[in-house]
Specification:
The structure holds 2 protein chains of 2 kinds. By secondary structure, chain A is α/β, with parallel strands linked by helices. Chain A has a single domain, classed as Rossmann fold, CATH 3.40.50.300. Chain A has 7 helices and 8 strands. Chain A has an 8-stranded parallel sheet, with helices on both faces. In chain A, helix 4 (about 105-115) packs parallel to helix 6 (about 140-155) and helix 6 crosses helix 7. Chain B is of the alpha/beta class. The longest helix of chain B is centred in the middle third of the chain and has 21 residues, at about 215-235. Chain B contains 13 helices and 14 strands. In chain B, about 40% of the residues lie in helices and about 20% in strands. The termini of chain B are far apart. Chain B has a 7-stranded mixed sheet with strand order 3-2-4-5-7-6-12, sandwiched between helices. In chain B, strands 9-11-10-13-14 form a 5-stranded mixed sheet, sandwiched between helices. Chain B has a two-stranded antiparallel ribbon with strand order 1-8. Chain B has 2 domains: about 5-235, 3-Layer(aba) Sandwich (Rossmann fold), CATH 3.40.50; about 240-350, Rossmann fold, CATH 3.40.50. The chains are: A alpha/beta, B alpha/beta. At the A-B interface, loops of A face strand 1, helix 8, strand 8 and helix 10 of B.
Chain lengths: ~240, ~350
């Protein structure tokens, strides 16, 4: 599926953080599948303790079929409004041949989940990626992306390794002329002295301009179902 | 940035309120609407507004009462159990004829229930909820774009009629993400509020905002005035969307999330050779009874199918409007479950007998 994703910076643990609604879950799920397809044993850890309404764990069956195992919050899928970290999380650190992908809840509140495992994470081979959707209100300018990055770094206590360009309008992406605002992301990356590690989009929404970019492109498959999504996206 | 932004339903309610001139927000967190408050906490600072996390829902609605009396555009938001707590305040606001906007992102009940979407607060929203003879205008959006537009409209209607206007959404609408364009953001209708309490500076008689009337004739006069106002609202501001109702054999009635699901079914029914239309009330109060009465009178229409995320609430208003002319069937799910397109199409086939 993603043989075209020429990303070589594999770490034992890849952490995805970002502003609320940046697309962390979809990127984490697809990144996990790509790792599994590349021959690694992968566990996707759903650490989104912020929003019980939709989360990666809802996609567990589909991900399992792709060879990705999951660790989810104890209460995931029960609709109990109780935030708690999954107990199986530490097994990712303990098993040497296991690769972990952490899907972290939105913003600073969500990033606290990372802070709780900071000593283990800091000692492990890891990378922290900040997922950015420029069409979202808190990351619509370079200045806001930078501010968001600082807030997240302060909460996690760990430096961000790179940005992920994930600008989208969900399934409306293909039919819209989206301004991908590549220069906004690049400007923020420069100010943060970080690379744009990779970009992600639905296959039909990958803009031609990206072929001239240095970043690898992760072509997304939809794993996460969001509330209210019907088979047809047409609404008044 | 694209001309459209990707917004969550709850966020867009907050953004719309701010763009409509709301500078005072009082709330208390509850799933599935807490993002409204979270967004307000961040955005109110940019516009020199006030956001207070009150000590309870009851405190929040009484802060709304105070700010509204002082002439401010003000809003509170909550979800079902929290809205129940606010009912006394709603009644006082109606009695004092104050403009205010309340959002109910409904979750499943009764009791503490659960955090998943439902439409079980229809009766509470449209039939009163609190004590006394009063009405709230109730708007039922069905998309994130419409959440934006109807929230702006809610502030305009509240000021126009000096009434409480409720946005009745549900967990699905609050949590879903869709692109939004902020069109018509500048269309804020400002009205004079010669009644608001703002200090006399010793230059005039003081004004009073109250809902207490000791003299029975005074109170009856207030009630007569309120009822006359409600008749005007019914006449001027009933909103409804009619989809494919011409020559329809079955008419679906549905609002909000259940109308989103139903909308997709219309085409599927068409493929089966069953002509199905939909009447979607956008105002739940005033209820678009006339549109339903007219549909019920049409020869082509054989029956109605009311679809809700409850045990049958708007159903009663549909039956009143149909008035026995045609059978009214019902499909509802509770507990946070949503009816599937398949369930609806099966029901349509059963009704149509094919």
């Amino acid at each position: 599926m993603n043989q075209s994703f020429q990303f070589h910076d594999k770490h034992k643990i890849s952490v995805f953080i970002g502003a609320y609604g940046s697309g962390k879950s979809e990127v984490s799920a697809n990144f996990s599948v790509w790792l599994a397809q590349s021959g690694y044993r992968v566990t996707l850890c759903d650490l989104d303790i912020i929003n019980p309404y939709f989360r990666t764990s809802d996609a567990a069956a589909a991900l399992s079929a792709e060879g990705v195992s999951m660790v989810s919050p104890q209460f995931a899928g029960t609709n109990a409004d109780v935030p708690a970290l999954p107990g199986g999380l530490l097994s990712v650190f303990d098993q040497k041949d296991l690769y972990g992908v952490f899907d972290i809840g939105g913003e600073d509140l969500g990033a606290r989940a990372v802070a709780t495992v900071r000593p283990r994470l800091a000692a492990a081979d890891h990378a922290i990626y900040m997922v950015v959707n420029v069409n979202r209100p808190c990351t619509d300018t370079a200045a806001r992306i930078v501010r968001q990055a600082y807030v997240l770094e302060k909460t996690t206590g760990l430096p961000i390794s790179g940005l992920v360009q994930n600008t989208n309008l969900l399934e409306y992406s293909q039919s819209e002329s989206i301004d991908y605002s590549d220069e906004t992301i690049e400007q923020a990356a420069r100010q943060l002295s970080l690379p744009v590690s990779f970009a992600a989009a639905l296959p039909e929404a990958v803009p031609p301009a990206w072929s001239a970019k240095s970043w690898p492109v992760l072509r997304l498959k939809r794993f996460i179902r969001y509330p209210g999504q019907a088979s047809s996206a047409k609404q008044p | 940035m694209s001309s459209r932004v990707l917004m969550k339903g709850n966020e867009v309610i907050a953004e719309a309120a701010i763009r409509a001139g709301c500078r005072h927000y009082f709330g208390y967190p509850i799933t599935p609407q807490t993002e409204i408050m979270n967004y307000m906490a961040r955005r109110m600072k940019d516009v020199d507004g006030t956001m207070v996390q009150a000590e309870s829902e009851i405190a929040a609605i009484n802060m709304v009462y105070g700010a509204a009396a002082a002439g401010a555009r003000v809003m509170t938001t909550s979800s079902s159990p929290g809205i129940s707590l606010k009912q006394e305040g709603f009644s006082y606001i109606a009695g004092a004829e104050l403009p205010a906007v309340v959002v109910n992102i409904v979750r499943c009940g009764p009791g503490l229930g659960g955090i998943l979407p439902a439409q079980g607060d229809y009766f509470q929203a449209t039939k009163g909820g609190g004590h006394g003879d009063y009405k709230n205008i109730v708007l039922a959006p069905a998309s994130v774009q419409e959440l934006y537009e109807l929230t702006v409209e809610a502030f305009n209607l509240a000021d126009k009629y000096r009434m409480l206007v409720m946005i009745l959404g549900d967990g699905t609408l609050g949590q879903m993400m869709e692109p939004v364009s902020y069109r018509d953001a500048e269309q804020i209708e400002t009205v004079e509020k010669p009644w608001h309490v703002c200090g006399t500076k010793d230059k005039r008689q003081h004004r009073t905002v109250q809902s207490i009337y000791i003299d029975p004739d005074d109170l009856e006069a207030l009630n007569d005035k309120l009822q006359a106002k409600y008749r005007t609202v019914e006449k001027q501001d009933t909103m409804v969307e009619m989809i494919g109702c011409e020559d329809a054999e079955i008419i679906i009635t549905a609002f909000g999330t259940s109308s989103r699901i139903s909308r997709n079914v219309l085409r599927l029914a068409d493929d089966l050779g069953i002509k199905v239309g939909m009447i979607r009330p956008i105002t739940l109060w005033p209820f678009p009874s006339e549109a339903i009465m007219e549909a019920a009178a049409a020869d082509s229409v054989k029956s109605f199918l009311d679809i809700e995320l409850n045990a049958g609430q708007m159903l009663e208003d549909v039956r009143l409007a149909v008035n026995g002319r045609k059978p009214v069937h019902f499909l509802g799910r509770t507990g946070g479950n949503l009816p599937t397109q398949k369930e609806i199409i099966e029901k349509i086939r059963t009704i149509a007998g094919r």
